[in-house]
Specification:
165 residues; 0% strand
Length: 165
């Protein structure tokens, strides 16, 4: 089980740490609305990561080739709703590619929980960073500019997702 937990932690951090629209979300929320709101948004993102990990554990070998086959349309959907298809592909490839081998259902559950915990801890760190930024930028003009910059970053990342960059 230790190997499954370690693999889950590494997978969770591996998918959560790269900066993208999901990372910009709790930072922007934290700066504009404080830690509690940002933490809620970040934990929502971490829940999706854990769900993707669970789907990958259950369907990994079957799912990876199917997702790759619909990669281009999936990027357009991702840009529209800011879902990260790379997360699904990452977990499916990790599990489906036999990088992680589960010897029991407990190992599979441990992997999913560890991936979710890793993602959640990263999202909470981002929420805290955003909340700290919000405390420094206390005026209404600064908060408005923080929101604008965050929105522009998310829009730019959506465009890059469509372009496959």
């Amino acid at each position: 089980m230790t190997d499954a937990v370690l693999a889950g932690l590494l997978a969770g951090y591996g998918i959560a740490i790269p900066v993208g629209a999901v990372a910009a979300y709790p930072i922007t929320l934290g700066a504009a609305h404080g830690f509690a709101t940002a933490a809620s948004g970040g934990l929502g993102a971490a829940s999706v990561d854990a769900l993707y990990a669970a789907v990958a554990v259950v369907l990994g070998a079957v799912l990876a080739p199917l997702i790759m086959a619909v990669g281009a349309p999936l990027r357009w959907v991702a840009a529209a709703v800011l879902v990260n298809p790379a997360t699904v592909v990452y977990f499916a490839a990790l599990v489906g590619g036999s990088t992680v081998i589960f010897t029991s259902p407990i190992d599979a559950v441990a992997f999913v929980v560890a991936a979710g915990v890793a993602s959640a801890s990263w999202q909470l760190l981002l929420a805290g960073a955003g909340a700290g930024l919000g405390r420094v930028l206390t005026g209404p003009v600064a908060r408005r500019w923080t929101a604008v910059v965050g929105a522009v970053v998310v829009l730019a990342l959506a465009i890059l997702t469509v372009l496959g960059v």
